[in-house]
Amino acid sequence: MTRATGVGSVPGPGTADPAEAFREAVRRTSEAYAPLAHLPEMPGRGVGAEMVGRTLGLIDELGADVQPAGWRLTEASGQSGRDQRRARSLLDHDLDILEEEAGGSGGYGSTGDDLKIQVAGPWTLAASVEKPRGDRVLGDHGARRELAEALAEAVTRHVADVQRRVPGARVVLQVDEPALPAVMAARIPTASGFGKHRRVDPPVASALLETVLGAARGAGAVPVVHCCAASPPTGLLAGAGAAGISVDLGVLTTAAYDPLAERFDAGDLVLLGVAPSTGPATGEPAGDSAVLNRVRRLLDMLGLDPAEVGEQLVLTPACGLAGAHPAYARHVMAQLPRVARQLDEA
Predict the structure, then answer these.
(1) Which of 78, 140, 285, 293 has an alpha carbon 20 to 30 Å from 309's alpha carbon atom?
(2) Is 8 exposed, middle or buried, given 0-12, 13-18 or 19+ CB atoms closer than 10 A?
(3) Per residue in 180-224, pLDDT tens?
(4) Structural domains in the chain?
(5) Do 63 and 80 touch, CB atoms closer than 8 A?
(6) DSSP 139
(7) Cis bond before residue 35 (omega within 30° of 0)
């Protein structure tokens, strides 16, 4: 059965109470995407609600706080900064809401269902977070290894916490790595802005990913990696232990098709971004038939039968929906499950 789910972020809270807005987002994602609902992210709530801050909030071993340039590790290792504590408190509250909704009549927690949660990956964190005295963690081999190891410990705890709160669901851990292609191509700027950090070779990139993905597997989760690049390093991700990949069909080059077909052949999950993350500036968004035809066309080019890959294929938006109008986000959440069913019925 072909499924649908979200990538992570949703619009909000707007003028609504943040807690109630998040609760409503949990209900909507549960109803729309079961049997593969996801824990929504709502970065519009401010510092600590965005991808990097939310992940740093999970980490106990390293302290972090927000500076004018963004998130920075603190000198006091293991002592959480104020913003990091806020991020942790916010996520704990979100998980409380998730647990409450799982105990009701929603789609979370049904035996045999999957529940997807998201964290920023080690390379995206290293490219986004500064060391205590400035410049990115990415440029320091020891610091980025320490950050990856702390993330792996955090993943182990986080997966166990979600399993305890929603015991009926299998946890899918999505590791977000939007910065990975830039890291491997030496496109991450230094603090001065006049230079670039040195490229990271594939074996080095794989090793840090393996640390985190292995922790997810060890905790009983299914690790997938989200990388919405034109040519994501699919083989590298699989070699590092990813059991699935999440990509944006709208930007994929034809050179990425064969590696993607190999993931289907290997039995991995393929989360395929088929709906733009923001609606069109004018006119109506693409209808069901247009989205369905895009998926069929790709599978045909890959030489795959939809009936044979339905258990592996998951339809998603191209990326998070935080920047979308709420009405468009609701449209996507209703459309993707319909298209998934239509693909199975064809």
Answers:
(1) 285
(2) buried
(3) 999 999 999 998 788 999 999 999 999 999 999 999 999 999 999
(4) 3-345 (3.20.20.210)
(5) yes
(6) G
(7) yes
